[in-house]
Amino acid sequence: MYLEELFGLNGKVAVVTGGSRGIGQVVSVGLAKAGAEVVIVARSNADETIRLVEEAGGKAYFVRCDVTDEAQVNKTVAGIIARSGKIDILFNNAGTCYHKKAIVLEGEELGGLNDGEATLEEWNSVLNINLTGEYLMAVAVARTMIEKKIKGSIINMASMSGTIVNVPQCQAAYNASKAGVIHMTKSLAIEWADYGIRVNSLSPGYVRTPMSQPPFVHQELLDAWDPMFPLHRMAKPEELMPAVLYLASPAAGYTTGSDIIVDGGYCCV
Ligand code: NDP
Fold first, then answer.
1. Does the global pTM surpass 0.70?
2. Which residue's C-alpha comes closest to atom 9 of ligand 1?
3. Which of 15-19, 68-72, 112-116 has the lowest mean pLDDT?
4. How far does the centroid of ligand 1 lie from the alpha carbon of residue 77, in Å?
5. What is the mean pLDDT of residues 206-227?
């Protein structure tokens, strides 16, 4: 009863971007188990996530949307309001990464750690998805919260890469985008505090998802990371859920503008 009062999400509507796989998939199931109706947003499909939510006894539906496209974002949010009536929680999680150097010298050996020299197009694409996409979703959702006087919770996916610089791979655009997410979060938390909308960010360390596994990551890089984990392993996506549930729920009523780092001690070293 007391736990339900603190952490229960019955009657809430939660939007999860990037819910088709990885962390977003696990969080969709977790939010549904806590009682929320979950709306999954991604570019491909969410068949597997919806099956998992329904197996867990929850309710979910999918809306196809590229979060970098303002018109699609606004249409998506309007469609969710038409179908579900409101949005209480946004888990703003869609993201991408590349491992490329800013400068590769002629004949330089990259040793499987980096995939070459990043183009401006690649830099822009990472910034567009990770930072601008989260901004567009946050603004569109917060507008509905203000209109409907919903004291909602927006959880922006950042990363420990917004605080430290990962090695040995190079990912300047990713690191810059996540540092941007952390400060954008603080800025929007202050801007929307008068409406009772809380905005926080979550900064995981390495998490075992398609983004951190082959073929996206070369075996050489996985081997290089291996001795760096204080807890001797990556996180499981499920290990982020308690922090997400806290930020989404009434328990976090006095938490806004915070960045919660869940990294197994990685940033301490
Ligand atoms: P995955 O690659 O497994 O999943 C990424 C998700 O984002 C997919 O559902 C993808 O769906 C969606 N997505 C990507 N681009 C867009 C877009 N333009 N519009 C809508 N949806 C999009 O990644 P993770 O689950 O590992 O990562 C999720 C978040 O967590 C990211 O923001 C990532 O930076 C962050 N993170 C991950 C860590 C890790 O080690 N895995 C560590 C720290 C932070 P689709 O392709 O169908 O569009």
1. yes
2. 18
3. 112-116
4. 19
5. 96
Separation between Cα atoms, residue 133 and residue 68, nearest integer Å: 5
Distance CA 65, CA 56 (A): 25
| Omega prior to 168 cis, within 30 of 0 | yes
Which of 20, 28, 153, 159 is catalytic? The answer is 159
- 12, 100, 101, 178: the catalytic one is 178
For residue 22, CA distances in Å to 8, 107, 167, 231, 251 come to: 23, 36, 22, 21, 26
- Fold for the domain defined by 2-98+120-217+236-255: Rossmann fold (3.40.50)
In this structure, are residues 26 and 244 in contact, taking their beta carbons and an 8 Å threshold?
no
CA distance 6 to 250: 5
Dihedral sign, Cα of residue 117, residue 176, residue 235, residue 228: positive
Domain boundaries, the chain: 2-98+120-217+236-255
As beta bridge partners, residue 155 has 91, 200
Q: List b or e across 146-167, with b for residues whose CB sees 16 or more CB atoms inside 10 angstroms.
A: eeeebebbbbbbbbbbbbbebe
